[in-house]
Amino acid sequence: MAGALEGPLHRDSRPAGVAFAGLCVGAAWSVGALAARVPTAPAVAVLTGVTTWSVLGGTSLARIGAAMADALDDDDIEAARALVPSLCGRDPQALDADGIVRAALESLAENTSDATVAPLFWGGVAGVPGLLAYRTVNTLDAMVGYRNDRYRRFGWAAARLDDVANLIPARLTGLLVVLLGGDRGQAMAAWRRDAHRHPSPNAGVVEATFAGALGVTLGGRTEYPHGVEDRPLLGAGPAPTTGDLRAAVTVSRWVQTGAALMAAAVAAGLSRRSAR
């Protein structure tokens, strides 16, 4: 639906982008609020469970990360390149094996927050409307939140809204990585030392903590279809290998489990408070 709306609403201006983002996110929230009015507790539970399942991407994320490591270990770089678009927007043909590992690990870190922790957080806080609205925000950022000629102004609102929606979840993800991800001291040190240098206020936190926990260095020259960026270095170790990518998949799964438990606790606490 957002794709259908983009055509008639697109203008090379920020106000047009604000209207587009507001309409899409408002519609998602309204649908969620109406659906959540089902009259019985079992129906609410089923609706919440189905909606939560539909907006989470953590299982696919871990599966693709593991498949990419398998392909690279088998020296099948073309198979690994074919998986790159499933994780990130980089140009697969510009990446060698080391570049694919780094791209996969950075995307695995960022999407652990975006695809799992953030929707669980907003679901725990705001129920079904929060789940649908957050997924819409994140989808709009992936659609139009680019710094190219078409979207620099029109996509500005979607990109900024995504930054705001992920401020708390990204830091929860960083905390869970520190607690569950391996080397706690290095994860926290990388967070404090390196995260603020990343161009994204949220991706820097999760990528830095993953790098520290795994003992690797992320960042550097990054090629996208719209151009090349020189990203700051995160962490203080060697370049990641396929073994580190597999370790990152394990960390991601632990973080996802911790986030699910936290979201359930928050939702239960808010439900009891509302009942009183």
UniProtKB/TrEMBL annotation:
One of its GO terms (biological process) is cobalamin biosynthetic process. It holds the Pfam family CobD_Cbib. InterPro entries: Cobalamin_biosynth_CobD/CbiB. GO terms for cellular component: plasma membrane. It comes from the Bacteria. Belongs to the CobD/CbiB family. Converts cobyric acid to cobinamide by the addition of aminopropanol on the F carboxylic group. This is Cobalamin biosynthesis protein CobD. It comes from Gordonia insulae.
